[in-house]
Specification:
- With 201 residues, the protein is mainly β.
- The protein has one domain: Porin (Beta Barrel).
- It contains 3 helices and 9 strands.
- Strands 1, 2, 3, 4, 5, 6, 7, 8 and 9 form a 9-stranded antiparallel β-sheet that branches.
- The radius of gyration is 22 Å and the shape is globular.
């Protein structure tokens, strides 16, 4: 019995979440990228009801807009972006409130990868195990013609709200928006705003 109580207490001290949504590039990024999408994974420790600590991993993806593609002289391209930040969360309503707004801010690693592609046809080998012969067929692919990556630090700040799914259940729906800024060595900082929807427990 004591072991079960201790296990339950440990589980109650932990928090996890997963979500997805859309991401709007802002500033200079907004002049070069279309609206994209995001994925978010997080987990951490509940200090008390009002304060949580969480390690937050996000991935954002955008396609280059027509103006940026014209400058590069390529037909297609995209930016993939991941962040790993420590994000404390402060709940702003009493425990009795059903709708639970919160604020959050964090600092950590920001990685950006720009990839330019063009359509290409490559011969591909196919083998049939039943008849025991192989043949080649042309297959259309997106050929990478250039790629560049940057790893820097950055920060984010924002907020959202939780809504318990069943009464006072630990399982909650959440919606949030955050402003991100990646510090860059040359040119303007990279900024964007992901809006994310998901579940946490």
């Amino acid at each position: 019995m004591t072991f079960s109580v201790c296990s339950a207490q440990i589980v109650n001290r932990l928090n996890f979440g997963v979500g997805a949504g859309f991401t709007t590039p802002t500033g200079n990024a907004g002049n070069n990228l279309n609206t994209g999408w995001n994925l978010d994974l997080r987990g951490g420790l509940n200090v008390n009801y009002h304060i949580e600590g969480a390690l937050d991993f996000t991935y954002d993806h955008w396609n280059l807009n027509s103006a940026a593609l014209a400058r590069f002289g390529e037909p297609d391209g995209h930016v993939g972006f991941w962040t790993l930040t420590f994000n404390p969360v402060v709940k702003l309503a009493p425990k009795e409130s059903r709708l639970q707004p919160y604020g959050t801010a964090g600092y950590g690693l920001y990685h950006r990868n720009l990839t330019l592609t063009r359509p290409a046809v490559v011969p591909t080998l196919f083998c049939d195990p039943f008849f025991g012969f192989c043949f080649t067929e042309p297959v259309g692919v997106d050929q990478v013609v250039a790629s560049a990556s940057t790893l820097k630090t950055g920060f984010n700040v924002g907020g959202g709200f939780d809504l318990p799914i069943l009464g006072r259940s630990r399982l909650k729906l959440f919606a949030e928006a955050r402003y991100h800024r990646m510090f860059t060595t040359h040119g303007k900082d990279f900024t964007f705003v992901p809006v994310t929807f998901g579940v946490r427990w």
